[in-house]
Design goal:
2 strands, 324 residues
Length: 324
């Protein structure tokens, strides 16, 4: 079995080998820039770990893992335009470094290129793998649209929010795990369990992002705390607070969200205090743990030796206790 560090190294080497030195350079240089500014690489790591559960030959899953990572980065390219985000991983976003038109077109090219990395898959499973990838790719877009819809709504149901992050964040993680498992030779039952494992892991991961944006250590988190509060982003914390708040607490919360004259520092402080009064911190941590626990139950049910599952379970624990 490969270690996570070994798999990370394989992925880093493969991404560094990517070259887009063709014309028109204005289209391809931003792709190379995007793929080389870092990131957690969670999706390709999990794809290769899933393959390795069933096969020692992970070579055949490397290209699909890179394809999944490329598609993920395409979505970030377009998300940054929609959010008008100036930085991604402490580097200028493509639309900031170049312009919106470049970011849109280079993102489109990335999305198309990502499918090329599946061409060498075994013909017997190629159709199934492309079906999974294509379905998940469309679901990511659906999730993004729901996220944008929520911006116009005063109240959002928690179940609707969980469904949105399942689509926007979880399905590509889940799909990568299922694809990796199938390439490794897993049967459909185990592949489905790994898909569910990824789905609940992805939900927990996004909820953790929501939590860290408010309660993370800024020195570890790597960016300013409270960005979601400043932008009134519909996170689990804000949605739960709006749904639970009553009377003057509700009025204060809505006023802070609507008052454009209040400073960011005051807004972050006051809304965090409201979160504390409503016990939001404990509620989000409980929800995170629930989803991590379900994810672990799914992988426990995969029909291979527990020793083989240790690496992937240790990686999940690392994600569970991450602080950035």
């Amino acid at each position: 079995m490969y270690t996570v560090a070994e798999i990370q190294n394989i992925i880093d080497i493969e991404i560094k080998k990517l070259r887009f030195d063709k014309d028109p350079k204005e289209l391809y240089i931003p792709i190379e820039y995007t793929m080389n500014i870092g990131g957690k690489r969670i999706r390709p790591i999990l794809t290769l770990l899933a393959c390795n559960l069933f096969s020692d030959n992970i070579e055949k899953a490397i290209k699909p893992a890179i394809g999944i990572e490329m598609f993920h980065n395409f979505t970030l390219l377009h998300d940054d335009i929609m959010d008008n985000a100036p930085l991604r991983r402490n580097k200028p976003t493509v639309h900031t470094k170049w312009n919106n038109n470049v970011a849109i077109l280079s993102g489109d090219a990335m999305m198309i290129k990502s499918f090329e990395y599946f061409y060498d898959c075994d013909p017997e499973i190629l159709k199934e793998i492309l079906y999974i990838f294509n379905k998940n790719a469309l679901q990511v877009c659906e999730g993004q649209q729901y996220d944008m819809n929520f911006e116009k709504q005063d109240k959002v149901l928690i179940d609707d929010y969980i469904k949105m992050i399942e689509l926007k964040t979880s399905v590509l993680i889940a799909g990568g795990l299922k694809i990796g498992a199938l390439i490794g030779g897993a049967d459909i039952s185990d592949a489905e369990l790994l898909y569910d494992f990824g789905k609940y892991l992805g939900i927990a991961f996004q909820l953790q992002d929501d939590y860290l944006d408010v309660y993370g250590d800024v020195k570890i988190f790597g960016k300013k705390i409270g960005g979601d509060i400043v932008s009134n982003k519909k996170t689990f914390l804000l949605i739960t607070a709006v749904n639970l708040a009553k009377g003057q607490i509700y009025n204060d919360l809505i006023e802070l969200m609507r008052n454009n004259s209040v400073t960011n520092e005051i807004k972050i402080h006051e809304i965090t205090q409201i979160y504390n009064r409503l016990n939001i911190k404990q509620l989000v941590l409980k929800k995170i743990n629930e989803n991590f626990d379900i994810a672990c139950q799914c992988i426990d049910n995969v029909s291979i030796d527990a020793i083989k599952k240790k690496t992937i379970k240790d990686f999940v624990l690392h994600l569970k206790f991450r602080e950035k």
